[in-house]
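Forum: Protein Structure Q&A
Topic: Joint prediction for protein chains with partners

I've read a bunch of threads here and the consensus seems to be that you should model interacting components together rather than docking separate models afterwards. I'd like to see that in practice. Below is the full input, 643 residues plus whatever partners are listed. Could one of the regulars post the assembled result?
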Amino acid sequence: MQGSFFRRSSAAGLPAGSGSALPALLLVGLFFIVPVVALLLRSVTDPEPGLQNYAALFGSGTYVRVFLNTFLVASVVTAVTILVAFPVAWMLAIMPPAMGSVVFGIIILSMWTNLLTRTYAWMVLLQRTGVINRALMGLGVIHEPLPLINNLAGVTIGMVYIMLPFMILPLVGTLRAIDPMTLRAAALCGASPFEAFRRILLPLSLPGIAAGGLMIFVMSLGYFVTPALLGGTSNMMLAEMITQTVQSLLNWGLGSAAAFVLLVVTMALYAIQLRLVGAKHAGGGI
Amino acid sequence: MTRSFLSIRAVRKTFGAFVAVHDVTIDVPKGEFLTFLGPSGSGKSTTLYAIAGFQDPSSGDVLLEDRSLLSVPSHKRNIGMVFQRYTLFPHLSVAENVAFPLRVRRRPDAEVKRKVADMLALVRLENFADRHPGALSGGQQQRVALARALAYDPPILLMDEPLSALDKKLRQEIQAEIRRIHRETGVTILYVTHDQEEALHLSDRIALFREGRIEQIGTGEDLYLRPASEFVAGFIGNSNFLAAEHLETAGGAATIRLADGSIVKGVKTTQAFDRGQKARLMVRPEAFRLTPGPASAELAVEFIDAAFFGDRRRVVMRTAGGEELDVRPTSDAAEPHGPDSGRRIFFDPAVAFLFPA
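Posted by a regular:
Agreed with the consensus. Here's the joint model:
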């Protein structure tokens, strides 16, 4: 269906009904393109014309560390999300539809719950005197509270939880398209469940993993609330840094430069994904 | 009892209160081509799945060379299988699909390469090694699936309606291929189909399933010429059934009275009837003659329609009792009677069968 749509649009120049897309295009132009250009201008003009903001950004060890930490957190969150989401998605894909829609409902419901509420809930669970630590100490599993908050572990737990639906949904789509008979065939060919997973299921689900993974990585790069509440000062992320630069230091130029770098990195990643898996799969799973 | 190669012993499969397979027992000698034939839902696929390990039977056992397969997981059964739907791995080339079972067995590269070449030659797809399954026709895909299932020399090959998604001409072509491959490899094949022509064409023996039981098992000739029940007679080949009343039986030959009152002597039957019991007489379409022969019974009929089919004619007639008859004399037989003529057709009672009504 998608193929025929593209054929039609290229033959006619513009897709039929593109006139009705005008309000949306206008909206994007006015509230996205214009501010981004303004941001770019600000980063090279504030406080005076030149590239000194970018020089400061890449010249300072602190800022470079924030960049690296941002990538680290985004990578860890993406990897952990994929690992957690895959079994859930597989279960959903093979479940009877009636039961599947109940589980889907639970997942979607969690997405609809307010982000701050969910993050505060994690704070209650993860802190030194939180539910998890007290339960583990009560059971005698540990004697000292585990450091679960204000560090990478806290950020990872909080963000993976928020990102899970964005991985599960595209992955379920991909997995459902795989004929379960293919896996039976693999088993009769002599493939153990692990071999069948490694040689058949995993390669066939890569488009879904790539689509979900990229989305999560990009969303994680610019994430603010969860790292700010569950993360520590030693592993600050880019969005937090931008907020501080602009709000506390009132350095609009430097903040704009950091924001623009983040945007460029995101766009570059998307371009790579398009090249690797093709436009059909990039972000198309949802 | 002789030691058989594959032995299905009293296999029973229930789904809740529904019994899908009732205590099916079959012994399969090595190298046999055995077909499970039957309408959908007759338990033939369920029995096959018990052998493949996809569904454990509720009771009973499956033995291969006297060792039970039931506790062996699918991937260790070393059985080949071709499925109804195309189950090739879409991300692998044709050659890699065929190589897959050898790769998971960690066979050396040289052996894999040689075996893949052999298998692709066997199914005559040497020039398609580097294609992906998506670029093949349905028939080609099933031939690759066949090559993949035979690559590791399994002792048994299971085929679950492998041709049902193909059109008729292609089906016949691949049936011939399957026969040739069976001849060349000597592999034991269990084949599931609902198509009786396919079963007759391919098999050494046919097990005809009905409602979870085996109605009759035997060669195609057995089932066609000596059907054990009206169901078998109706399922294998074309049949005409005429209402009849049983008068007496002596030495396997029954005397009956047809609806028009005529008496027919010497009808074959394997079952016991009471005097006056209602029965059904089965006559194959090709058993009817347009001219009287020695010892033939006759029927008063009315001509309805005729068509020419090359090797045979097909004539539709109606008895005085209103029963429509499918009559297929060879095409070199006399011209069928025109609409105005033709009052009688003839058949040899020795090739007609009597079943309880």
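Chain A touches chain B at residues 179, 181-182, 184-193, 195-196, 199-200, 203-204 (CB under 8 Å).
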